[in-house]
Design a protein that fits this description.
The structure is a single chain. This protein is an all-alpha fold. The chain has 3 domains: about 40 residues; about 110 residues, Arc Repressor Mutant, subunit A; about 45 residues. The protein contains 8 helices and no strands. Helix 3 packs across helix 6. The longest helix is centred in the first third of the chain and has 24 residues. The chain is elongated, with a radius of gyration of 22 Å. The termini are far apart. It catalyses: O-phospho-L-seryl-tRNA(Sec) + selenophosphate + H2O = L-selenocysteinyl-tRNA(Sec) + 2 phosphate. Keywords: Protein biosynthesis, Pyridoxal phosphate, RNA-binding, Selenium, Transferase, tRNA-binding. It is an enzyme of class 2 (transferase). GO terms for molecular function: O-phosphoseryl-tRNA(Sec) selenium transferase activity; tRNA binding.
Length: about 200
């Protein structure tokens, strides 16, 4: 709501109530602006209400949530099934898990990336693209806070165990291109063997 909305509210509940509620909203807006400006983890964690407010606002920026307007292109995000719609989609899943809000629904069904480039902006999903960029920035800040000061960039993607291990092995192979052996302390599932074989074939 903008200032004109609060002027209308004052006509209903009075000026004193209007001022109190407007100040409360401005406080939350200020926290959001600080996040957008600095793109770093906040000094104090957000409460659930602020998280939901922010994510709902972002979801309204995706074209599948526009009112009285929708496209029919092959990249349009659409959810017919209510069961599917109640799930979270694409990269935001990772962010929701970190925020401990896995059961919320924000109609973010576009995902991220464009034309095979996972870090590219999705032109029809401004909100999802913004979540993507912010998630990467917050993850980078967390890495730097953990002591890895030289880390300059990162990006977050959904990644299962085998894929994560294969990516690590591919990195090690670049560091030691002549290495022929992987020493694994414990193999108790097929994923371990599969990621070693996949890294060797790439």
């Amino acid at each position: 709501m903008d200032s004109s909305s609060f002027e209308l509210i004052a006509n209903i509940v009075g000026q004193s109530y209007r001022s109190r509620s407007e100040n409360a909203m401005k406080t939350r807006e200020k926290e959001i602006n600080v996040l957008l400006r600095h793109r770093k983890l906040p000094d104090h964690g957000w409460d659930d209400a602020l998280i939901e407010l922010f994510l709902h606002n972002l979801s309204m920026m995706d074209c599948n949530n526009f009112q009285r307007a929708f496209g029919v292109g092959e990249r349009e995000g659409r959810c017919y099934s209510g069961i599917v719609r109640r799930r979270n989609f694409g990269l935001p899943d990772a962010m929701f898990i970190v925020l401990n809000t896995p059961n919320l629904h924000f109609s973010l069904c576009h995902g991220i990336g464009r034309s095979g480039a996972i870090t590219s902006l999705q032109p029809k999903a401004t909100g999802s693209s913004l979540i993507n960029r912010l998630t990467n920035s917050l993850a980078l800040h967390a890495i730097q806070l953990s002591g890895v000061k030289d880390c300059k960039s990162c990006f977050v993607i959904p990644c299962a165990t085998g894929m994560a291990m294969m990516l690590c092995l591919l990195h090690f192979r670049k560091k030691r291109p002549n290495a022929q052996t992987v020493i694994w302390s414990r193999i108790d599932q097929k994923t371990c063997i599969k990621c070693i074989l996949a890294a060797g074939d790439c």
